Amino acid sequence: MLRSSHSYKNGIAAPSHCRSGECGWCHSRLVAGDVYMPTSVDGRREADKKFGYIHPCVTFPLSDLTMEVPTVR
Ligand code: FES
């Protein structure tokens, strides 16, 4: 799972709130790489899916990733 602790360890301050895929606070654009997001926790809107956004708090990386992470609000 792409937890904030991983982001912090790599010097990235990523936003996080519910940590259950529901609030969308962490939504980030997946630029490159493969991920797995269980359908049972996929709370993304259709527009998010269409434009490649994921909720890192409930996403498992399957490869190295390149992401656009919003700044902490
Ligand atoms: S922190 Fe709420 S969807 Fe990720």
Automatic annotation (TrEMBL):
UniProt domain 2Fe-2S ferredoxin-type: residue ranges: 10-61
Pfam families: Fer2
Top-level taxonomic group: Bacteria
CDD domains, per database record: fer2 (cd00207)
Signal peptide start-end: none
Name assigned to this protein: 2Fe-2S iron-sulfur cluster-binding protein
